[in-house]
Amino acid sequence: LAIHPLYQRNGLGKGMMVVLLERLQMLEVEKVTLFADAQAVRFYSGQGWNLEPRGERCVFWYAR
Hints:
The protein has 64 residues and is an alpha+beta fold. The chain has helices at 12-26, 41-46; strands spanning 31-35, 50-51, 58-62.
């Protein structure tokens, strides 16, 4: 997932992630591991993803 800098901070990334995770839940996917640029980790953390122990480039999502 990448949003051009001109269009960031308008909710596009968050909206895309909501749709993606809803579809994954419908497919009964229980866990997603995502590797992101260090600058994007905060974005995913704010979306409810769990950081890996070192909090660097990897985040996890678990179906609830």
